[in-house]
Design a protein that fits this description.
By secondary structure, the chain is mostly helical. It has 2 domains: about 40 residues, no CATH class; about 70 residues, AhpD-like. The chain is about 75% helix and about 0% strand. It contains 6 helices and no strands. α3 packs antiparallel against α4, α4 crosses α6 and α5 runs antiparallel to α6. The mean pLDDT is about 95.
């Protein structure tokens, strides 16, 4: 069995202000979805990075998920290839933004 993903960011950051959202974030998105065994964590992490990039999300959540992907075994070469591939479908400027973050993560 793969490692179990446990997330508390929802409750830590929004638990008092938006407890229902915190529950969905921590218990459903991460507790259930991320622990579903149909995809391995490496694949799931890479898909998440590409989905965020495709939407133009370049805040701390993209960096978090690039770090997460690296921690789940996505190599620099795989990350670069995935962002390059997605650039043709999601947009060149979005890829540039993702590369700026990924480059920092993979050189840390």
């Amino acid at each position: 069995m793969a490692e179990k993903i446990v997330q508390t960011a929802g409750r830590d950051v929004l638990g008092e202000f938006a407890p229902e959202f915190a529950h969905f974030n921590d218990d459903v998105l991460f507790g259930e979805n991320w622990n579903n065994q149909d995809l391995d964590l490496k694949t799931r992490s890479l898909l998440t990075v590409i989905a965020l990039m495709a939407q133009g999300i370049t805040d701390s959540s993209l960096k978090y998920h690039i770090v997460n992907a690296k921690n789940h075994g996505v190599t620099r070469k795989e990350m670069a290839a995935a962002i390059t591939h997605a650039a043709f479908y999601a947009g060149w400027p979005k890829a540039w933004a993702a590369f700026n973050i990924a480059k920092d993560v993979y050189t840390e």
